[in-house]
Amino acid sequence: MFCFQCEQTAKGKGYTKIGVCGKLPEVASLQDLLLHKVKGISLYKVKGRKGCHQS
């Protein structure tokens, strides 16, 4: 498991069962998915804002 949210990684390597902070792989995967979705939503927000301000 490699956790993209953690700033702490022992020796710069991922783990196979549990993260340095104690986070389970399932939780890390769900957080990765959530961040991916939020980035996608924000992209539409930015595009929508640009479209509304054009003259």
Order of secondary-structure elements? H
Main sheet properties: none
Radius of gyration equals 17 Å
Number of domains: 1
Structural class: mainly alpha
Large-scale geometry: elongated
- Estimated share of beta-strand residues: under 5%
Instruction: Give the helix tally.
Output: 1
Query: Helical amount among residues, as a percent range?
Result: 40-55%
How confident is the prediction overall: mean pLDDT?
Answer: 76
Low-pLDDT residue intervals, each spanning 5 or more residues: none
- The count of strands amounts to 0
N/C terminus separation: 49 Å
Task: Give a structural overview.
It is built from 1 helix and no strands. It has one domain (1-41). By secondary structure, the protein is mainly alpha-helical. The radius of gyration is 17 Å and the shape is elongated.
List keywords for this structure.
single chain; 55 residues; mainly alpha
Strand and helix map with partners:
Elements: H1 25-52
